[in-house]
Automatic annotation (TrEMBL):
This is Ubiquinol-cytochrome C chaperone family protein. Transmembrane segments: none annotated. Pfam families: Ubiq_cyt_C_chap. Belongs to the UPF0174 family. Belongs to the CBP3 family. Residues 36-172 form the Ubiquinol-cytochrome c chaperone domain. It comes from Mesorhizobium marinum.
Amino acid sequence: MFQRLFRRDRNADVAITEALYASIVAAARQEVFYADWQVPDTPLGRFEMVSLHMFLFQHRMRLEQGAPRDIAQILIDEFFKDVDHSLRELGVGDMGVPKRMKKLARMYYGRTAAYSDALERDDRQALGAALARNIRPDSGAWPQAAQLADYVAGANAALAAQSAETISGGSISFPAPQAA
């Protein structure tokens, strides 16, 4: 499949997808999110942040055709393989993984719909509310949601400015969040 997709050797294809996925995960693990903006540094909190950055990548690639679109599909598949692996590492048994995966997939796609809608309308308040609802559902008021919403809007603009060719070559750059 990769041969058809990228028209290069398999090692280069794997290197591209691994580089992109590593960039997405690294962006999601930036310390500011957890230390300053109070995103829970728990398995679920980390899932939320990787999901958010995967959403940003997918949102950037949604209108592309050909190889960039195929790369986006490969990366979402890689994301869910990683989630499956993480569940197993957390001790979820073989019988429980499919049920949890189905729930996490519904969570991911529900979130992406809310985030996409807010970004398309350029509604930072709605984006902040969706982020708070998903990332800190039990905390009541979460003042840092507005900062995270600003980061997401900025990251969306930064990703939009990056060429599909550069991204398809394995390079994507997320902005650094600014601590308050």
